[in-house]
Design a protein that fits this description.
CATH topology of the largest domain: Dehydroquinate synthase-like, alpha domain
Number of strands: 10
Number of domains: 2
Number of helices: 17
Strand content: 5-15%
Helix content: 40-55%
Structural class: alpha/beta
Bound molecules: 5,6-dihydroxy-NADP, zinc ion
Shape: globular
CATH superfamily of the largest domain: Dehydroquinate synthase-like - alpha domain
Distance between the termini: 36 Å
CATH class of the largest domain: Mainly Alpha
Largest sheet: 6 strands, parallel
């Protein structure tokens, strides 16, 4: 992609005999969000927010923070420290553009200075779009479709309650427009939160299935970066380590929901799994997310469930002599497959991943979610178009490829 001194053609074999012979892309490493990680870190919230004002929009979801007490903790901190707040409640999973508009209206009516998102990825994403939508003069969906038109954002802070998306430390926001059957990633650096409170204890109440699908999302982000054009030995070894940790921690959380150490592993893997740490040196685009976002757009399903179903079928679809080398490396080092033949090892690794998701309770067929093939053609066309899958994916996919992957996933 780039020219000049920043390109390294790696022609050596590192431990593990990875055939590194692709181009390492140039990259910028930046992590502008302050992550306050660990028990009791909420006590730092007021100090972090104070320089930015006193009028706060408090965004949250459907009520889990009322049930687990996080709402009481946060609002007490706000009141005790002289903040006033307006609530944007009921932010739905797969947050909608109408809710973003509601948040922008509240901010304007109440001269909001700071946005505080308390929840999972949906709440944080919605609040990111509200933060930039506040300054946006025009139709908010246009802003989502063309992120570069958003120029400024209110300062955003988050209190993370679910390990999954990495939204607490990234520049992405994914917004749905049900009227158009669209779900669109909106990536721009003004989306980075100023700071995020990441206390693993705040995820003790996440239900088992949501814990599992959130972990599938974490793993997918890591795998999407792993299987991208461009090579970087360091990124890949970090990715393999992160994957091994998620695979170890998820069953522990399912067994004992208040296992602090295991919840901490998932939370940290959520944050760094999607960061430049795993994508440095990589180019191109993600494949499975483009396909999954169509499923969520049309059927409003849980993001991580769609990914758990699609990912193994995508890997099987693109398995060939060339891709087998990389997939076999993953199978051996992450899934502990002992098999000298690359194609066989790759297949066993894919099956191990599928078995792992199923054992963690994730439905593994689209039909389990009430999805049939009626929209496959339209969804496949949108996935290719919006995800640039035919030109920028690790293995380019045409509409008929995506359709075949959906069919196999049924
Ligand atoms: O809404 P409430 O009542 O809070 O309940 C939520 C929701 O029902 C519940 N929950 C969250 N924390 C909880 C809890 N329940 C009990 N105890 C807690 N501590 O979990 C349910 C799901 O929440 P949600 O925020 O929707 O989940 P997630 O974090 O997986 O976010 C999914 C959204 O993020 C987008 C997805 O597409 C989807 O729209 N993504 C965002 C990305 C980003 N910003 O970079 C990247 C991802 O790939 C992804 O696309
Ligand atoms: Zn995701």
């Amino acid at each position: 992609m780039q020219n000049g001194a920043g390109i390294f053609r790696l022609r050596f074999h590192c431990p593990g005999n990875l055939p590194y012979n692709e181009i390492m892309e140039n990259y910028t490493f930046e992590f502008p969000t302050k992550i306050c990680f660990g028990k009791g870190q909420i006590s730092r919230l007021a100090q972090l927010m104070k320089p930015y004002g006193i009028r706060v929009l408090l965004g949250y979801g459907g009520g889990s923070i009322h049930r687990n007490g996080i709402y009481d903790t946060v609002t007490a901190i706000l009141k005790d420290n002289g903040f006033t707040f307006t609530e944007l409640s009921g932010i739905e999973p797969n947050p909608r553009i109408e809710t973003v508009q509601r948040g922008v209206d509240l901010c304007r009516q109440n001269s909001i200075q700071i946005i505080l998102a308390v929840g999972g990825g949906s709440t944080i994403d919605c609040c990111k779009a509200v933060a930039s939508g506040y300054y946006y003069d025009g139709n908010l969906w246009d802003m989502v479709m063309k992120p570069e038109t958003a120029k400024q954002a209110l300062p955003l802070f988050t209190v993370l309650t679910l390990a999954a998306t990495g939204s607490e430390g990234d520049n992405g926001a994914v917004i749905s427009n049900p009227a158009l059957n669209m779900k669109k990633g909106f990536h721009i650096d003004i989306n980075y939160p100023k700071a995020s409170i990441c206390d693993p204890a705040y995820t003790f109440t996440v239900p088992a299935l949501q814990t599992a699908t959130g972990s599938a999302d974490i793993m997918s982000h890591i795998l999407e970066n792993y299987f991208r054009p461009g090579e970087d030995a360091v990124s890949d070894e970090i990715s393999e380590g992160l994957l091994r940790n998620v695979i170890r921690a998820l069953p522990a959380c399912l067994k004992k929901p208040d296992d602090y150490d295991a919840r901490a592993v998932l939370m940290w893997c959520s944050t760094i799994g999607i960061s430049t740490l795993t994508s440095a040196g990589k180019g191109g685009r993600w494949s499975c997310h483009a396909m999954e976002h169509e499923l969520s757009a049309f059927y409003d399903i849980t993001h991580g469930t769609g990914l758990a179903i699609i990912t193994p079928h995508w890997m099987e679809h693109i398995l060939n002599a060339k891709t087998a080398v990389k997939m076999a490396g993953l199978a051996r080092r992450v899934w502990k497959i002992e098999e000298p033949d690359d194609q066989k090892a790759a297949k066993k690794g894919i099956q191990a991943m599928r078995d792992f998701f199923a054992a963690c309770g994730i439905p593994m067929h689209l039909r389990d979610l009430g999805i049939d093939r009626i929209h496959f053609e339209e969804m496949a066309a949108d996935a290719v178009r919006l995800g640039h899958l035919d030109t920028e994916a690790w293995v380019p996919l045409k509409v008929e490829d995506v359709r075949a992957i959906y069919e196999a996933s049924l």
